[in-house]
Prior knowledge:
single chain; alpha+beta; 3-stranded antiparallel beta sheet; about 10% strand; HATPase_C_sf; ATP binding; ATP-binding; nucleotide-binding; TCS_sensor_his_kinase
Amino acid sequence: MLIEVVAAAVVAGGATAAATGGPLVAARRRARRAGEDIREAYAARDAALAAEGAAQAEAGAARTEARTVRETVERETRHLLEARLPALLSHLRTPHVTVPGLLTPELAGTAVDRLHRALLDAVAEGVAAESERVDEAGRAVVRGAMSRVHSLQLRLQDGLSEIQRRHPDADPALMADVLALDMLNELIGRAAQTPALATGSTPMLFRDDTHLVDIAVSAASRVRDFKERVGEPVNHLTRSVGVMAQSVEPLRAVLAELLANAVHFSHGTLKVDVSLHETQTGASVIVEDAGVGLNAEQFARAERLLSGAHPVRLVELGDPPQTGWAAIGALVRQYGFQVSLKKSSYGGVAAVVSVPAALLVEMPEGHAPSVHAPAPVRTPEPAAPLPAGVRSVTRTAETGDPTALPRRRRKTRERGTGPVAPVAELPRLEPREAKARWGGWQAGRDKGREAVEAVERESAGATPHSTHEDTPSPQDPPHSRPSEDVRAAGSGNTPVPPTERAPHEGPRSTPRTAPAQQRGHDL
Length: 523
């Protein structure tokens, strides 16, 4: 019974399974596909999440890089404003200051670097143009002011000379005070002339060629206490070397500044040595002191200023401004002198002023140096006689001698054929005695000229072409009569006794004539 029941159940279960087997398999297949879809959806979600994470990471990296670049540019711009621009302004004032480069070397060649460089160049050009305008305006102010002061100084100089001429018999103590004022006036003139020359003004014009040794003596007289501080020039010249008229005052200004500088930086008991030499290319004047000397940096600065090859701004002259070397450099550039410095044998400074042969002349035989000029150390040997039939010439182009100087000869009227008495050497006189003699000679000369002029006016019809300016008066001592150009300049050019005014031996200097709207700006 039991077996039958079990068999029936098995048969019933098999029938039931056979009836339900198809739908179950389909359900299982659908379930399997749904699972796959779910897995794909999860995979897609994971991929999307991964992509989103990557995008966010990339965006974060981009934001970080942008922030880094911005910070770098800000730091570089701050460096430009705080370091590079101030250094550039300092470099424009003092070239030895260096301008730093980029703070971040990685920016070299980038747009930031190019823009910063363009900004620095624009600032430099703008500052340079404005500095040039301001400097030129300052130069014009200095030139105008110093020219007016120098003009007044020249008027005072003429007044003091007129006092000496009109009062030859005045009290010696009073005349000594007048000479002291004259010396002070010379210092004022140099103090006014030097800044004007350094700022582009032109020196005075001289009427005649002048002996080089006279220029050296006259330059020394423009220095304070020159009698005690400047030694007598040692004249090594073997010929009567002179300087052309247009270069007399520039050369004298150069020597005066060098002498003043040497005296200033030397001890009060030490003298400054001056010597004159002939060279293959012209002549030279050496100013040598035993002062404190110069270090390497000072030598470099002095050579730069004295060369005249570099423009000098007012701000480079210091405070208070030191215009001496700048003035020398300006004259060197304009007239062709050459000034070099070296260490002297005494431990100080030796300044060598070279004058080219183009500015030199050989003075006429009848035009001797002033009584203050030292005699040559070596007496020149007389030239050997020329062979018969050979004509003597003096020009370099004819002789072929590169060291020969052009000879200047004065055109004078024939003075007769009688023998000329030899001139004895004049003795050295005391200042008071010389002043008295010179004053008497001047008074007699003036009276004699007035008498000659009266006679000539009466006999003008008989000798219309004769004038007392062509023949020296019997009272005129040798080599002291002024030239025709100087006499034509007026009473202000009357010569002064040599013992009283060493700076003005020979022809007087006069300011350059300028148009009315520019007068006062030229020295």
